[in-house]
Amino acid sequence: MGIQRPAWLEALYTQKFFVGCSYHETAKKNEKNICCLDCCTSICPHCIPSHRFHRLLQVRRYVYHEVVRLDDLQKLIDCSSVQAYTINSAKVVFIKKRPQNRQFKGAGNYCTSCDRSLQEPYIHCSLGCKVDFVLKHYKDLSPYLRTCSTLTLSPDFLIPQEMGEEETQSTIVDSEERMSWSSGSENNMSVACNQSQIVRKKRSSGLYVCGRSANNYKVVVNSDNEDMATSMISRRKGIPHRSPLC
Fold first, then answer.
1. Is the peptide bond before 121 cis (omega within 30 degrees of 0)?
2. How far is CA 89 from CA 107, 118, 212, in A?
3. This protein's superkingdom (predicted)?
4. Residues with Cβ < 8 Å from 201, sequence gap 6 or more?
5. pTM to 2 decimals?
6. pLDDT tens digits in sequence order for the chain, 246 residues long
7. Distance from C-alpha of 15 to C-alpha of 7, rounded to nearest angstrom
8. Residue of 111, 132, 147 whose CA lies nearest to 8
9. How far is CA 50 from CA 10, 41, 42, in A?
């Protein structure tokens, strides 16, 4: 009897991706988006040093489904007749089936397992649909499998860098400088306010005289101007004067 499914292919179906890594719970960007084909498990970017000599396959997400790059998958299995989609100028293939509630009734190609409408000449909408089709009709998957001894991540894969000791010290220095600067600015601001703040004082005559408050500094107002202002404010509205009738 032929080969059913290799262990790495079974891992792509059963392992959970885009969930937090239990080994790096406190680390940032700890989503499992890599499948280690030698360990047959899903790992996060922080696990790469422990698997650096293994075959690593990056798993991506497209319209809430898991996909892999066609160029990477072609090194492992024949992906002919599987429709590919373009994401960021790279062709990807869906891993699992995407069944539809309604069957395709129009003209054209449709998936052999999911009845999903496809472009010509494709007849499988995902890798899982092709594997099931081959096992159902040919009972042997070995002719479609390819030998792949090494598989590395794509150059655009970013490995998050943990915050080092130097960066931590620089952050502390920056915060101290920010605190000293803020305290100095507050002192300067208080002096400026003391020098420029206008205080309104109410005098007994009803006149509001403006003066600057800095070290008990008072403004001396000219007596003539004060008397004039006092007479203007204390002046009461009397009986209006009308012109005599002629």
1. yes
2. 29, 20, 69
3. Eukaryota
4. 208, 209, 211
5. 0.62
6. 456 789 999 999 999 999 999 999 999 999 999 999 999 999 999 999 999 999 999 999 998 899 999 999 999 999 999 999 998 889 999 999 887 766 656 667 889 888 888 888 999 999 999 999 999 999 999 999 999 999 999 877 877 765 333 333 333 333 333 333 344 444 444 444 454 444 444 444 444 444 444 444 444 444 455 555 555 555 555 566 666 654
7. 11
8. 147
9. 22, 13, 13
In whole angstroms, give the CA distance from residue 241 to residue 121.
105
- Count CA within 13 A, CB hemisphere, residue 64: 1
Cα separation, 84 vs 91, whole angstroms? 6
Per-residue H/E/C for the chain: CCCCCCHHHHHHHHCCCCCECHHHCCCCCCECCEEECCCCEEECHHHHHHHCCCCEEECEEECCEEEEEHHHHHCCECCCCECCEEECCEEEEECCCCCCCCCCCCCCEECCCCCCEECCCCCECCHHHHHHHHHHHCCCCHHHECCCCCCCCCCCCCCCCCCCHHHHHHHHHHHHHHHHHHHHHHHHHHHHHHHHCEEEEECCCCCEEEEECCCCCCCCCCHHHHHHHHHHHHCCCCCCCCCCCC
Structure tokens at 236: 């009461």
Look up residue 234 and give its two tokens.
């204390």
